[in-house]
Write a structure and sequence with these properties.
By secondary structure, the protein is of the alpha+beta class. 17% of the residues lie in helices and 18% in strands. Strand 1 and strand 2 form a beta hairpin. The protein is globular and about 65 Å long. The C terminus is likely disordered.
Length: 190
């Protein structure tokens, strides 16, 4: 399965067995989520005594793998990439939200609230992975304003972060700074 299904793709389109996604890890995770579950919910793998139960379980696993491939396996990445351009640039504040979202303002539905964590205004985090294409933005990062008083953009021509022309995320709380993009609207930081 590692060499046939869990395959990632180089920016040039060449396939290779994923470094991050491995069959033993997948099986361990599916076993846990189908037997123990999270929040009273379990991953459906089928029931042999129910008509079509096993087929439904197989389809569920296939759909899960298809979604996982689309979101992560094909890129051999486990973190969100900085991919939203604002004014033809990749703002460093994109880690605060892309596609008009403000991640710190998002909340779980009531029946999933037990999984929600409060915003830690002093937390600093740097993603492990980023896109693999030539001079792609570095892994997303975020932290308090005291650590990142301004955020700039990813200069893909130079292949590095540039804070000389800083952007500030519009609409999100100003005490937290992200690394690229924002709500799709950025303003020059004064």
């Amino acid at each position: 399965m590692n060499s046939q299904v869990l395959r990632s793709q180089t920016p040039q389109g060449q396939l290779y067995p994923s470094y991050r996604y491995q069959l033993p890890d997948f099986l361990k995770s599916v076993t846990y989520i189908s037997e123990t579950g999270v929040g009273g919910r379990k991953f459906y793998i089928g029931e042999p005594r129910v008509p079509e139960g096993v087929r439904y379980g197989i389809v569920n696993a296939i759909l899960f793998l298809a979604q996982a491939y689309k979101e992560a396996i094909q890129y051999d990445a486990c973190d969100e990439n900085n991919w939203e351009l604002v004014n033809d640039r990749f703002p460093i504040s994109n880690s605060c939200g892309q596609l008009g979202m403000s991640y710190q303002d998002m909340h779980c539905k009531a029946d999933e609230a037990f999984m929600e964590c409060p915003v830690d205004r002093q937390m600093e985090q740097v993603a492990l992975t980023s896109a693999l294409w030539f001079q792609a933005p570095a892994p997303l990062k975020c932290g308090p304003k005291s650590t990142y008083p301004t955020t700039g953009f990813w200069d893909y021509d130079a292949g590095r972060e540039d804070n000389g022309d800083a952007y500030e995320m519009v609409g999100a709380e100003s005490t937290l700074r992200g690394v690229v993009g924002g709500e799709g609207v950025s303003s020059k930081h004064e």
